[in-house]
Every structure is written in structure tokens, then in C-alpha cells.
């Protein structure tokens, strides 16, 4: 914006014209910045609200407000600069000069000549040099027609925003939006705030675009595990030509998510603070994906007895995972990123088997399972506190420590229960034996404990 108003060099915007549209090959951020300034919309204005169906997170609102204040401090509102052109006597010389520059300046354009294949080749050639594309952005763009990429993008914004599925028929598009909203609700609501002051936390962490997209690509991929491909990759999915594959992908995602949380009868009601957040309140994407993979694999192999084994020993398992939290981040980071989710998923499976076999769950055993060569480093690691001020992490850690010690427990399995995320109401004395729907005869349980264990 400054460069534009002060007549400084701005690289050309590179465009390509299709039979129906004009595409920006390079320079999209430049155009977006200027448009945001003109519309006074940095992600929270009327255009954004309409675009995202009023589903704008608190994080996005805070970021937009911070950007707006910075722009107003450094440049001024577009409406002010525009007014300086008409009423120069009311503004300082710098603002008037910028207004005159704005009135006469244009952007330099270059055009890519050729078909869609040439345009795509030009895009990746330009955007992988200099400042390269983010890895997640590049992965999505190269696989944009595959069902998991479409599903990930649709879940991120709960079916709002750009319709990446618009080439499918209306019925398929509506079904994609419907599934996306349900999945978004299960894994990203409520929106995460720091420091943590509630145990009602989103399983998937924050819904900020790049981090959430990276998580969702992996989530949608892992949810579609099969007996022949238990740890699928995005490249293993064929291009979706009619929307059927995307719908099937989303159905599998919803099925897995409904085992992790929510109020469906199958829901294990995994407590986010126990399973998916560190002791300092940071979301652990790797642990979330590890449980996603584990549930998806067990469903794919029709090994539902695993969930009963898990529930039978849930209290012991959760107590152990809480004990492991202070060193879990170090353990995770000791494994190469490409192997983390599979390693952790198999570790959780081993924890259940260890508990089922009646063996003790010990820290040294856990280290040997995940990263046997890192035992000395992990056991001696400690974080030195050098300030008297409580950081956000410390505040979150204090809250989680005190809140979990007083958290509700499921009377059937003894595991942690977060009713705002997942709960079932059980009759102490069964209805078939004359039990009434009174307060004295009711108790909160995990949905699976109420239906899969008792029944």
C-alpha cells in the first residue's frame, strides 16, 4: 500500500485469460491488499461476512482489527486519502500528495499466452522461485481436484467461502456443504482462545487457515484408511470428476469424528484437554491425528472390540497420558515429521494393549516405544523460568492443572468427561426395571459407555 501511494516500484501483476474468467498467476496478494484497503475489509467487513456466511472466528476478527489499526496509523483510511484529493486544505501535505499519486497511478500488467496447462505451469514456476509457496498451499494446489483436498477446504470454512466444489451438480454441492458444517462443528468449535480458561476446547485446535488446512489435509486423508491402505497419502486418491468421491470422503470423516467426540451413540467423548493439548495448553496436532488414524484403522479393519478394551482401561490410560504430558512434546519432536502420526498412533494402540495385559504403564516404557535413543535427553530436559511474569502458556498450564483435578468423571469407565463436547444421560436404575427420569436416577456418561458398554 505504501509503495503504491509513494510511487515506489511494484512488480507487474501477471494474468491469464480463460474463455470465461481472468486468473491471477502472480500478484494476487498485491491486489488483495489494495482491495482490502479500498473496502476497509481485512477479513471482518461486509464482503468477508457475506463470503463466509457470517462464520468469522474471533481470531480472524482480532487479526483484522490489528491490521486495520496498523494501516490507519501508517497510511490512513482509503476514504481519508480519497477525501484529501477533494478537500486538500483539510489534510497535511503528505496525505494530499499520496491522494494525487493514487489518482494517477496504475499497475503494470503482463499476460500469459497459452492454454490452461501453460498457465498452471507458469504459476508453479513463478511461485516456487524467490519466496516459495507455503508447502501446504502448494500441496493443495497440485492436488486441488482430489477429494481430500476439496474436503479439507470445505471443512475449514464449514462449507462457506470459495466453492471449490462448484463444478459438481447442485445436489452433490449441497451434500458437501452439509457434511462440512457438521465436521467443522465437531472438531473446531468452540473457537480456541489463549490463555485457556475453559475445558470446553476444540479437538482440532485453532481454525487459522494455514495451520488448520495442513491438519485437515492429513485428517481427511487418514479418515479414509482401508485394509489395503491403512496410512493413505493424498496422492493415492483419484481426481473427483462428479463429487461422489468427495461426498464419500466427507462421510468417512464425519464417521471418524463422531467416534472421537459429539453425542452420537458411538462417541468415545475424548476429553480434548487430556488427549489433544499439552500440559501448557498448546494444541498437539500430532496427537489429534494419531487418534484419528487409530480410530479410522480400527473401523476399516472392523476391530470394534478395541474400543471396548480401551474403555475397560480408560481411567488407567488417561492417568498415564496426563503423567506423560510434560515430556510428550519432546518425545514427538524426536521422531521425524513424516513418521510422527503413524508412530504415535501405534504407540496409543500399544498403550491400550499394555493396559489390557495388566502391565504397568511407565514413562521409560513410553520413551522406548516412541524414541528409545532419546531417553537420557528427554528425562534430563527441563524448562528454566527466568521471569516473574506469568506467560500465556503458564496461565494455561495452571488452569488445566487445577481444572482437570476437579473435572467430571464418567461413572462407568472412570475417564474424564467434558459434557459441553460430548455426553449421554444414563438411568442409574434402567427403564426396563422401572427407572424414572428423575434427577436422583440420572448420571452423565460418555455416549459409548452408555450404549456400547452397558447395553
Q: What does this molecule look like?
A:
It is a single chain. The chain is mainly alpha-helical and 455 residues long. It folds into two domains: 2-127, no CATH class; 147-302 and 314-319 and 387-433, no CATH class. It contains 21 helices and five strands. The strands form two sheets. A three-stranded mixed β-sheet has the order 2-1-3, with helices on both faces. The protein starts with a helix and ends with a helix.
Summarize the structure in short.
The protein is mainly α and 455 residues long.
Helix count, per DSSP? 21
| Spatial strand sequence of the major β-sheet | 2-1-3
Poorly predicted runs of 5 or more residues: none
Helix content: 40-55%
Mean of all residue-level pLDDT scores: 91
What is the terminal separation in angstroms?
64 Å
Alpha-carbon Rg, integer: 26 Å
Q: Report the strand count.
A: 5
Secondary structural class: mainly alpha
Strand and helix map with partners:
Blueprint: H1 2-5, E1 13-17, E2 22-26, H2 28-39, H3 46-51, H4 58-74, H5 78-86, H6 93-104, E3 109-111, H7 116-127, H8 135-142, H9 147-156, H10 170-188, H11 209-222, H12 244-260, H13 272-275, H14 285-300, H15 305-312, H16 314-333, H17 340-356, H18 363-370, H19 375-380, H20 392-405, E4 424-427, E5 442-445, H21 447-453
Parallel strand pairs: 1-3
Antiparallel strand pairs: 1-2, 4-5
Helix pairs in contact: 5-6, 9-10, 9-11, 9-12, 10-12, 11-14, 12-14, 14-17, 16-17, 16-18
Name its key features.
53% helix, 455 residues, globular, 2 domains, mainly alpha, three-stranded mixed beta sheet
Amino acid at each position: 500500500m505504501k509503495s503504491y501511494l509513494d510511487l515506489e516500484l511494484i512488480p507487474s501483476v501477471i494474468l491469464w485469460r480463460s474463455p470465461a474468467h481472468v486468473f491471477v498467476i502472480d500478484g494476487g496478494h498485491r491486489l488483495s491488499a489494495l482491495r482490502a484497503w479500498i473496502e476497509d475489509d481485512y477479513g471482518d467487513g461486509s464482503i468477508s461476512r457475506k463470503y463466509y456466511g457470517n462464520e468469522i472466528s474471533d481470531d480472524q476478527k482480532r487479526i483484522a482489527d490489528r491490521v486495520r489499526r496498523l494501516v490507519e496509523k501508517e497510511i490512513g483510511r482509503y476514504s481519508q486519502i480519497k477525501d484529501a484529493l477533494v478537500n486538500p486544505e483539510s489534510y497535511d501535505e503528505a496525505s494530499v500528495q499520496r491522494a494525487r499519486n493514487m489518482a494517477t497511478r496504475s499497475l503494470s500488467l503482463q499476460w500469459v499466452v497459452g492454454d490452461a496447462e501453460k498457465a498452471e505451469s507458469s504459476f508453479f514456476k513463478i511461485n516456487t522461485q524467490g519466496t516459495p509457496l507455503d508447502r501446504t498451499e502448494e500441496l493443495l494446489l497440485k492436488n486441488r481436484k482430489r477429494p481430500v483436498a476439496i474436503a479439507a477446504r470445505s471443512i475449514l470454512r464449514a462449507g462457506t467461502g470459495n466453492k471449490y466444489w462448484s463444478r459438481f451438480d447442485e445436489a452433490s454441492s449441497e451434500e458437501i456443504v452439509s457434511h462440512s458444517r457438521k465436521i467443522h462443528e465437531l472438531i473446531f468449535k468452540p473457537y480456541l482462545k489463549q490463555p485457556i480458561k475453559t475445558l470446553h476446547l476444540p479437538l482440532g485446535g485453532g481454525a487459522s487457515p494455514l495451520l488448520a488446512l495442513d491438519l485437515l489435509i492429513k485428517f481427511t486423508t487418514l479418515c479414509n484408511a482401508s485394509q489395503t491402505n491403512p496410512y493413505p497419502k493424498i496422492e493415492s486418491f483419484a481426481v473427483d470428476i462428479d463429487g461422489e468421491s468427495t461426498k464419500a470422503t466427507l462421510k468417512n470423516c464425519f464417521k471418524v469424528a463422531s467416534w472421537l467426540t459429539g453425542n452420537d451413540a458411538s462417541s468415545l467423548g475424548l476429553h480434548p484437554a487430556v488427549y489433544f493439548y499439552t500440559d501448557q495448553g498448546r494444541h498437539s496436532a500430532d496427537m489429534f491425528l494419531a487418534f484419528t488414524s487409530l480410530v479410522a484403522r480400527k473401523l476399516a479393519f472392523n476391530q470394534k472390540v478395541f474400543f471396548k478394551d480401551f474403555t475397560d482401561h480408560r481411567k488407567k490410560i488417561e492417568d498415564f497420558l496426563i503423567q506423560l504430558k510434560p515430556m510428550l512434546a519432546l518425545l514427538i519432536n524426536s521422531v521425524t515429521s513424516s513418521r510422527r502420526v503413524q508412530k504415535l498412533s501405534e504407540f496409543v494402540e500399544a498403550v491400550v494393549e499394555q493396559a489390557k495385559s495388566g502391565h504397568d504403564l511407565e514413562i521409560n516404557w513410553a520413551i522406548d516405544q516412541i524414541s528409545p535413543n532419546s531417553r537420557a535427553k528427554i528425562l534430563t530436559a527441563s524448562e528454566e523460568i527466568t521471569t516473574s511474569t506469568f506467560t500465556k502458556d503458564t496461565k494455561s498450564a495452571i488452569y488445566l492443572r487445577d481444572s482437570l483435578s476437579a473435572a467430571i468423571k464418567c461413572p462407568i469407565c472412570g475417564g474424564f468427561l467434558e459434557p459441553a463436547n460430548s455426553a449421554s444421560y444414563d438411568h442409574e436404575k434402567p427403564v426396563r426395571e422401572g427407572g424414572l427420569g428423575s434427577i436422583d436416577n440420572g448420571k452423565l456418561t460418555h455416549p459409548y459407555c452408555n450404549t456400547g458398554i452397558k447395553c
